[in-house]
Design goal:
This protein has helices at 15-28, 33-48, 59-68, 96-114, 131-139, 195-204, 240-257, 291-306, 322-334, 340-352; strands spanning 10-13, 78-82, 86-90, 116-125, 143-151, 171-178, 181-189, 213-214, 220-221, 234-235, 275-283, 336-339. By secondary structure, the chain is an alpha+beta fold. It has two domains: 1-68 and 335-366, Malate/L-lactate/L-sulpholactate dehydrogenase, four-helix barrel (Hypothetical Oxidoreductase Yiak, Chain: A, domain 1, Orthogonal Bundle), CATH 1.10.1530; 71-191 and 237-324, Ribosomal Protein S8, Chain: A, domain 1. The strands form three sheets. Strands 2-3-4-11-5-6-7 form a seven-stranded mixed β-sheet, sandwiched between helices. Strands 9-8-10 form a three-stranded antiparallel β-sheet, with no helix packed on it. Helix 1 packs antiparallel against helix 2. The protein starts with 9 loop residues before the first strand and ends in a 14-residue tail after the last helix. It binds nicotinamide-adenine-dinucleotide. The site of nicotinamide-adenine-dinucleotide has 28 residues, from strand 5, strand 6, strand 7 and helix 9.
Length: 366
């Protein structure tokens, strides 16, 4: 049941209830208890961190894809190529929340043994917020960097200087563990915005900021509908030629190097499939400058960085990962805001998987 009204057209749901509801939908759709828990853990944490584009709003898409077979329930990661410190893991279109976790488990174990492990995860269904995988490695004391591409659906992001989309939002992440503290987690889409944020704006029927989107003619646009109504426009890459270049590198490393395939006419489909490939490099600090040195230098440097006088209007210099944790504190306390369209889509999805009516929260109960 919805726990309260937020802003107009929005409900606020306590995280544990959102978790129970998400898990119940996944279970009713045929996922195992463990799979449903991993999916709900991941999506609700994305909401708590403020990345609603990668939160429970993905559930209708996931259930649509389990229905078509584009996402395979109860599937596990399989090593398809094993060179010790370099491994390729086939996701088999299984739930990304399951196969990416399993791939990181294997990569962490190998990195502890060899000092480093390069993991190519191929053909995983949507692996969600990439920071989740960096955080898993950081919890094990590992530094990790992750390069991701996306295929299986239409192109969304224009290359730098292009008026037409040629790839998708290709995320990049690096996570650095800290002794006794939360890790540094830099995690972003190489597009100006994640596609899910355009979806959320489209659901909310609000315009986006200038500088993020172009229409089908390549002109600047603030209308999220350019991604949903033909003739399609595109999202711009972030950071001009530098971000545009990073987006290209993500496709080359995650798609060409791992064997998972790039986003191109060979892999583009017109449906709702969403396949991620990820190149992860997992490094044990003990194998390089030594753990003690590393931990001390990280603290030394981060303290130095954060000591910079903030610019006018900025309260504090933050390190990557801090904004997400601040949002989590707020949302744990005040509930997760879900826009009305997304909430209705979740309820419709619950009905679709024939979740018992008494387990379906109603907006009217707010
Ligand atoms: P974003 O633009 O919000 O950037 C987030 C990053 O910037 C975080 O590391 C955050 O800590 C840091 N940051 C933000 N404000 C900061 C500040 N003031 N000081 C210091 N650091 C700051 O992220 P995004 O591009 O919208 O991506 C959202 C999520 O979408 C990410 O988790 C990404 O992995 C995910 N994503 C996934 C896919 C996929 O195919 N699976 C595709 C695209 C994006």
């Amino acid at each position: 049941m919805a726990d309260g009204q937020g802003a107009v057209g929005e409900v606020r749901i306590k995280p544990d209830r959102l978790h129970t509801f998400t898990m119940a939908i996944c279970r009713a759709d045929g996922s195992s208890e463990q799979e449903a828990k991993l999916v709900a853990d991941h999506l609700v944490l994305a909401n708590l961190f403020g990345h609603d584009s990668h939160g429970v709003g993905m559930m209708p898409h996931y259930i649509q894809n389990t229905g078509t077979g584009a996402c395979v329930r109860n599937h596990h990661a399989k090593i398809s190529r094993d060179n010790g410190a370099v491994i390729v893991i086939d996701g088999g279109a299984g739930y990304g929340q399951v196969v990416a976790k399993e791939a990181m488990d294997i990569g962490i174990e190998r990195a502890k043994k060899n000092g480093v492990c390069v993991v190519g995860l191929t053909n995983a269904h949507h692996i969600g917020r990439i920071g989740h995988w960096g955080e898993q490695c950081a919890r094990a004391g590992m530094v990790s960097t992750h390069w991701v591409n996306v295929h299986g659906h239409k192109s969304l992001v224009a290359p730098f200087g292009g008026a037409e989309a040629r790839f998708t939002t290709n995320p990049y992440c690096t996570a650095v563990p800290r002794k006794g503290k939360e890790p540094i987690v830099l995690d972003f889409a190489t597009s100006q915005v994640a596609a899910g944020k355009v979806r959320v704006a489209n659901n909310k029927k609000i315009q986006m900021e200038p500088g993020l989107l172009i229409d089908a003619a390549g002109n600047a646009s603030t209308d999220p509908g350019v991604l949903y109504n033909a003739p399609y426009g595109a999202i711009l890459p972030f950071g001009l030629h530098k971000g545009g270049g990073l987006a290209v590198i993500c496709d080359l490393l995650a798609g060409a190097l791992t064997g998972g395939k790039t986003h191109s006419p060979r892999t583009i489909k017109e449906g709702t499939d969403i396949i991620n490939n990820m190149l992860s490099i997992i490094i044990d600090p003990a194998s390089m400058g030594g753990t003690e040195f590393f931990e001390d230098e990280v603290e030394n440097f981060i303290t130095w960085v954060k000591s910079a006088k903030p610019q006018p209007g900025v309260s504090e210099v933050l390190t990557p990962g801090e904004p997400e944790r601040a949002r989590r504190v707020d949302r744990e306390k005040n509930g997760v805001p879900i826009d009305a369209t997304t909430w209705q889509q979740l309820i419709d999805t619950a009905r679709k998987v024939r979740l018992n009516d008494v387990d379906i929260p109603q907006m009217a109960d707010a």
